[in-house]
Design goal:
Length: 469
């Protein structure tokens, strides 16, 4: 522990139960998310030696149900010459790579960015795409002998997301040139030899560097050809300031992505970055993001573990009133969580008093006809902090954590981007999960999600309404 760390007694009150955390070290982006043989695997950017960024390696955790996670040993460790940056995993069921064992059911192949350190003998400072493989379902990993498999001699070429495109029968790799604001598509028959296919740029998203792309196949509502959604993270330039994640709906022909609409935030809150999807899932994609923000990620008051993932969410498309396709997401909420259905009236009232140490879920309809607040007041008598879901007189909704914390925290990142429902109505649905320091909110039937961290440290929460906002 260093001198700026908070006392340990304060920190475990923040540890979520249903959001993935590293056991006692630093975590950032989700990596290599895959559902394989009935098990959900989450690998993640991990510093096995500390609670801030560095020594980047892939941590590993597994879950049967996407609700509770078991941490496993580090899967891909850093070395003196290479850090293991973000990437993805595919099941090479046909053993196209030849890395599997004869007669086996195909290896798991991890494609990650080698971030070569200054001590690398030939390519110091270069970022290139490399491979590791597992013959035992992801428990143990072997680095490929001929790494890297794809280089552009660039210092900012990273975050490979690989998937199999069945129409063209080829593997597709999606990467970024982070500083150039470009997404690069490469294709391959065997995961080892890659040829350039196309480059995507979009002038509307140049508020920060581009990181962690993903391309999702999503069923089109009403049938017809599948749609494709490009997911992209930018730092800064996120919807709520600092780092954040966007989606672009469009088309993909196996080589080239074309956007049909402008970017939509994947999350309106400050704490969803590098969101990517699980491989091995048919139908609507399942995504998970890093529940933190590069603007303050290393300052969150927990130690020695730091950061969590968001709850997983499924992603769907729906036709908006103007005929365009809109992204809709639903939180994957653990069944075990205590759920309260609230009757929210446009009046002052105490709705519930709950134990704040156990995760809880609040559902209901928010009146949107006048300004109104649903307040979660965390406190043990002497000290109180409010997490506020506020509706203004125009029916716009904001999640405000400006006074939710025990100590001042991220004063420049206190509010979600306001959500304005496309269709005006008397009420707006909300589904709010609070798992200690982790807050995930689904609004308006999934048309908006908000992820926020709060550091209150209280044992009791009072839920109240307050129309006199
Ligand atoms: C995004 C990111 C990635 C990179 C990784 C390094 O948060 O910067 O672009 O691969 O983190 O930890």
């Amino acid at each position: 522990m260093n001198s700026t760390s908070p006392p340990v007694a304060l920190t475990d009150v923040h540890r979520p139960r249903f959001h993935l955390t590293a056991e006692d070290t630093w975590m950032n982006d989700p990596n290599g998310l895959i559902r394989h043989e009935g098990m959900w695997h989450a690998f993640f950017q991990n510093n096995p030696l500390g609670s801030t960024w560095g020594n980047m390696s892939w941590g590993h955790a597994v879950s049967h149900d996407l609700a509770t996670w078991t941490n496993l040993p580090v899967a891909l460790p850093f070395s003196e010459t290479e850090m293991i940056f973000s990437g993805s995993i595919v099941h090479d069921a046909e053993n196209t790579s030849g890395l599997g064992t004869p007669g086996g059911d195909g290896p798991l192949v991890a494609v990650y960015t080698s971030a070569f350190t200054p001590s690398h003998p030939t390519t110091p400072g270069i970022q290139a795409q490399s491979i590791a493989f597992s013959q035992d379902g992801g428990t143990t990993w072997t680095f490929h002998a001929d790494n890297p498999v794809l280089t552009r001699d660039s210092e900012n070429f990273r975050d490979p997301k690989v998937f199999f495109h069945r129409e063209s029968s080829r593997w597709v790799m999606v990467t970024v040139e982070a500083l150039d604001h470009s997404v690069h598509f490469h294709v391959s028959d065997d995961l080892l030899a890659w040829e350039p296919a196309s480059v995507f740029t979009h002038p509307g998203l140049d508020g920060g560097i581009w990181e962690c792309p993903d391309l999702l196949r999503v069923p089109t509502p009403g049938g017809g050809d599948d749609s494709w959604v490009l997911v992209l993270s930018t730092n800064p330039g996120g919807p709520a300031g600092g780092s954040g994640t966007y989606s672009l709906v469009g088309r993909f022909d196996g080589r080239r992505f074309a956007a049909d609409a402008s970017p939509q935030p994947v999350d309106l809150g400050p704490d969803c970055y590098a969101a990517v999807s699980f491989s091995g899932v048919e139908g609507d994609p399942v995504l998970m993001g890093w529940m933190n923000n590069w603007a303050y990620a290393e300052l969150t008051p927990t130690d020695p573990w730091r950061s969590s993932m968001t709850l997983p969410r499924t992603l769907h498309l729906e036709h908006a009133a103007d005929g365009t396709l809109q992204v809709v997401q639903h939180l994957v909420i653990p069944e075990e969580i205590r759920t309260l259905d609230l009757e929210v009236q446009d009046a002052s009232a105490v709705l519930a008093v709950l134990d704040a140490e156990a995760p809880f879920r609040l559902r209901g309809e928010l009146p949107t006809g006048s300004s109104h607040r649903l307040v979660l007041r965390f406190g043990d008598g002497e000290r109180e902090g409010d997490l506020v879901l506020a509706v203004d007189s125009d029916g716009r909704v904001v999640l405000d954590r400006s006074s939710a914390h025990q100590e001042p925290f991220a004063p420049e990142h206190t509010h979600s981007l306001p959500y304005a429902p496309a269709q005006a109505g008397a009420t707006l649905s909300f589904d709010l999960v609070v798992d200690r320091s982790c807050v995930d909110l689904e609004l308006d039937g999934g048309r908006a999600l908000i992820s926020q961290q709060i550091f209150h440290g209280a044992r009791t929460v009072t839920v109240l309404t307050d129309p006199a906002a």
